[in-house]
Each structure stands twice: as C-alpha cells, then as structure tokens.
Amino acid sequence: MFNLGPQELFWLFLIVLFLFGAKRIPEIGRSIGKGIQEFKKGMKEVETEINGNDKGPSTTTGDDPKKP
Hints:
- The chain is mainly alpha-helical.
- Helices cover 66% and strands 0% of the residues.
- The protein has helices spanning 6-20, 24-53.
- The model has no long low-confidence stretch (mean pLDDT 82).
C-alpha cells in the first residue's frame, strides 16, 4: 500500500521526533494504545450485545411448563 522502506521510515521517525520532541513521543504512544484498547473493548461489548440478542426474546416467566 505505502511501500515504505527503511530509509523512508527513518526520515518519518526523524520528522516526528522534531515535531513532537523526545519527551512527548512516549505520551503519544500511551494515548494511542489506550485509545485502541477502548475501541476494542467497545467493539467486544457491541458484539456480545448483538450475539446476545440473536437468541430472541426470553419467553420464560419462571414457571416450568413441564412440571405438573
């Protein structure tokens, strides 16, 4: 897609280093990691909600019709 080689990655890293500084790069990495973690958590919650609703509405009222 981008075909980035080692030289291009080096220049990209240098530009990011100059723009944000050495102290801000770990903070940026941490915040990106937390964002990805929250996104995955949200996706998992939505997925379980959708899969839980696929079973249909619950028709049990607490009384077991098989019992006399």
